[in-house]
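Notes from the pairing session

We agreed to fold both candidates in a single pass and log them together. This is the raw record for the first candidate, unedited. Please don't reformat it; downstream parsing expects exactly this layout.

Candidate A
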Amino acid sequence: MIRRFISYYKNYLGLFMVDMGCSMGISLLGMFYPIITRMMLNDFIPNQKFNEIVKFGIILLLVYFAKMVMKYCVDFYGHMCGTYMQADMRREMFRKIESLPFSYFDNNETGKIMTRIGNDLFEIAELAHHGPETILTAVSALVFAFIYLSNINLNLTLIIFGCSPFLLVIALYVRKRHLDASRASREALAEINIEVNSSVSGVRVTKAFSNSDKEMEKFEKGNVSFVDAKRKQYRSMAILHSTTNFVTDVFNVVCLISGGIYLYNGQISFGDYSVFILSINLFVSPVMQLLNFMEQFENGITGFEKFVEVMDEPVEEDSEDAKDYNNLNGDIKFDDVSFSYTDKEDAEVLNHISFNIKKGTTVALVGPSGGGKTTICSLLPKFYHVESGQISIDGIDIEKISMKSLRENIGIVQQDVFLFSGTIYENILYGRLDASEEEVIAAAKKANIYDYVMSLPDGFDTEIGERGVKLSGGQKQRLSIARVFLKNPSVLILDEATSALDNATEVLIQHSLNTLKEGRTTLVVAHRLSTIKNADKILVVSNGEIVEEGTHSDLLNKNGIYTGLYRSQFAQEEKLDDRLMMS
């Protein structure tokens, strides 16, 4: 783990060496004040060497100027070294997140991922900068202090350094409790972040249902836990600081009394005694630095462990014999396919599914919710991998088709449209990033959104807000359709693309979808059966199995599950029409 952490320094060895060199220099220059003070008290002042007093005063001023320059280098270049490492880790993590399979996002909340890429990486950057610097500065300061104080009086120095184990034992015991409390506090904060992320993302739903009080109640529960965790953290911190301060004060007492005895017995001069009292911080300060560093080390290493957890997650990978196929025709075959989202046998979603879709035809999937329709659509572009059986396109096992080329040949329009923050133009262009402006405009026209776009003051440069909040549901859907038009795939998946729209908007969208389906192999998941009457084949999926298949008229004649679904939906639509007429 430590070796892996250290490897991130290799690209910034220059900055790191400047930071370490200046840190060492600061420790060394810190010795000049007590050295010159001793010379003043023992020689220059008693012997009235005025010129020496002035000369060494100027030398000390120059030393402090050099120390200021070194401190600037440590604070700037040291922090930049940590920041560059943080940026590298963030880049690696983002690239890793983009390569993770869908299953990872099924099991990890967005707020948790944001904490990893934000707070945890910041703690790592702080450790990357302050860690080596603190260790080098503190250790070198202790060595310099021991050498210097021994030169004044070795026995007195040994007495002071001999007391250090007591400080370390007491401080380590108290700090262990503080670290545990700090860890609990960070976990409580992470839970709050997850809750806030969820509440902010769903604020429109909250307002629609007037459930702000409920969200406040959920937030307050986490907030109270956070306050309790912070109370324990600050109590342990108060115990830590007060205890360590008391121990360092005891050091001053030990130094004062033992030094006083040596002075009384004539074993040390008054000047050396005074300097020794003044110089005790040369020992105490680096010890406290090392103790305080422990918390930073704990935070940084904990953050790095969480970073490594993400980096060690298995990524989406093509099989060794996978190849690129740029122009697939779209003959699709599911052959005895089974799949489940967990390892439990009773959690099987698809059970030995088999069907064919000929090039350029439309096949619709209907049936009860949870039957496996959307799962079938997710397996085709390899968002998940089949457990048994085989899916092929143009007779080629999709496991032997690279994910990139497979997904480039598949266009998806879903019920829940996701749009990126940015302009209308940028969101359409996302369908094919190398497309020309003329191609983007043509795609907008085919999706029947061009006239609306041109009615806006900024046209295609209109900002749509986060997730397209400034657009209606129909406008967002047409924008997603334009994106697929631009992509121009050979296979099209429509996953309940119009189920969330009103009837009038659905008619407009359906017209765009009919144009989009022309010449493409299309797999449709439909809730409203009226929209798939003209499908070349309809598959009824229930409990992970295909229980019926045929055309609309064939299935009605069978008087089976499809007939029941159709009649139930038709009856509901008739009741709705009657209510509308009565109102």
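Candidate B (folded immediately after A)
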Amino acid sequence: MKRISLSLALLMSVAGITTTDTLACTNLIAGRKATTDGSVFMTYSADSHNLYGMLTHTPAAKHAPGAMRKVVEWDTSKPLGEIPQPAETYNVIGNINEFQVAIGESTWGGHEELVDTTGNSIIDYGSLIQIALERSKTAREAIKVMTDLVDKYGYASSGESFSIADKNEVWVMEMIGKGAEKGAVWIAVRIPDDAISGHANEPRIRKVNLKDKENVMHSKDVVSFAKKRGYFNGKDEDFSFADAYSTHDAGTRRGCDGRVWSYFRRFNKDADRYYAWCNYDSNEPMPLYVIPDRKVSLEEIQESMRDHFEGTPFEMTSDVGAGPNHVPYRWRPMEYEVDGNTYTMERAIATQQTGWSFVSQTRADMPDEVGGVLWFGTDDTNTTVYMPFYCCMTEVPAELAHGDVNTFSFDSNFWMTNWVANQAYNRYDLMIPDIRKVQSGLEKKFISSRPEREKELIAMLNSGKKDALVASVNNEGKAIAKEATDAYRDLGQYLFVKFMDGNMKKTDADGNFIKSEYGLPVYPSFPGYDKKYYENIVKENGEHFKLKK
């Protein structure tokens, strides 16, 4: 989702326009030789303060000659135009298609003058993703579909990074428009199989071998256009897409590249050196990818999406902003001024305004119908439950169907996850253990049941029962979504009762409320506040509250 550039944000601030959708979306990547089971992993969090968490589906279809496809802008639902349909399009569930192609994105804006000024472009970044998923069988094919589309119909968005994965490889592609000229300039780099990578609202492709046809693709004018516009004047071999087409200030390095750095340092002991880049203390850029010291598991990449900079200087639970309950969240706006100086709140991977997120798992050693799994969750990545949905799924569970952020429903996974999370935002350290118990219980069950389940599905496929496989996958998806939603509805009620009125009701080892020998609830405990909170009160206004002797 969108990140507005600093200069544009300042202009909007002067005009009194909110910029609350800035600094959104995170993609984390792990190549097939960098993971414990040979999967390609790619994550995406769709972060927007107005985005409802739902799962979308586009069925496979055959199209008659002359059939047209409507193009609708993802962010606004504004109709942009129509394009011809191909003879065939593929099944898409969320951000993965039936051939295990998965695509994510993060917006970085870039030079404002490169946004289309003609009004004639009709392909926005969200449509690029969806149309590519409908028409591609590999990541490389998706890149060609996407770049051909913007060449022919124009690019209607600002600077964007895309993660494009299939069952064998994963690419990062970065793209920006050309202002009054039709189309876009772009570059795509294949992430090595034994590497991890990521992007979070900052362009990350710098100096690469532009002649490496196997691992690097780019528009013909990616360098010449930058020279023509005065963004770059060096030798072609020294060209950096990220530095030519965007700027990197202290805020973007810390709030954007900092998220990728926090992922890198989990798996590479030498990645701590790039803290200096993120903290604006050094101009040595963080690389596009690093080789991990150990291989990444599915559980670990899901956990990486729950990151709040734990164990780093950006850690969010110990400063005064965390309050007495050590809350790793800060409400917007992110920047504020005191005595003429500008300060910032931290922007972690896990954030309250996420609509939905996923971890895509794609595997070359399995049939496509079984190898591609979208581990999908709604709301905040920290408190969501990642549910497994196979890429051949053709029905959206009712709990994940269309809705909006103004209409509450106890039957909606998005609303139940929000209900749980928003209670924890107030009393985080007290509530998060109860949330983790339910969340981890569900996820461990879903993960541990996959091997046996996938044997069953492959057996169906080998027996020629593909229709039965799809029906089975649909039914399991419905059962999983209902189980997760029901569990969080119960959890939300439990948290409300347990922590009502600032107290904490007493429970046994299994979490059951304790009653007296006469069957009445025992008296609750009073957690109060931590020592630091009391000390800050005294420091700020101690004499007012001090009891006289």
